[in-house]
Amino acid sequence: MRLPHPDAGAFRRRYGASPLHLLLVLASFALALYAGVRLLAGNAVDVALWFVGAALLHDLVLLPLYSVTDRAVQALFGPAAGTGGPGVRVSVNHVRVPGFVAGVLLLVWWPLVLGRVDHFTVTTALPADVFLPRWLLITAALFAASAAVLLVRVWWGTRESRRAARARARARRAGKRRRTPGAS
Fold first, then answer.
1. Count H helices, E strands: the chain?
2. Residue 74: how many CB atoms within 10 A of its CB?
3. pLDDT for 133-158, tens place per residue?
4. Inter-residue contact 169 to 151 (CB < 8 Å)
5. Which end of the chain is more exposed for a tag (fewer CB within 10 A), N or C?
6. How far is CA 156 from the centre of its chain?
7. Whole-angstrom Cα distance, residue 128 to residue 120?
């Protein structure tokens, strides 16, 4: 049997996580620093403008857009069952997740999806007009898979609730049979 080191808990109490966590965070900072130095070595002004533009686009356009969209989806699905007030239904996540993944795919591949670059035809050996239909197919497949998972969850949930209702009914019937007719 191996005994723990007496100071093993002290590090976790001070840092809040394991030493492996600290090592991984430091490695990710080192990688980010390396990437930043390499990126800024080319054209620092354009990179800085891109970061500022991306932050402004996100904060002033995209954040309000997907906040309003999320509220609309929540209103479409209605309040959470049994809360009596506004709440998030689990089924909203079956729209959020595929929408998020499709959005990230569009964000990463938007020049190809929108057909903005012709020189990628040489690199990919594909014509420029195939990326939009493929992105749409991937998006449709993501939403279809999410809908299938939702249907299974609803079916399983109704099955479990029917099973619980039958068990409660059997317990009530058994309780009525135990009571004597003259006793109150």
1. 7, 0
2. 19
3. 999 999 999 999 999 998 888 888 77
4. no
5. N
6. 22
7. 8
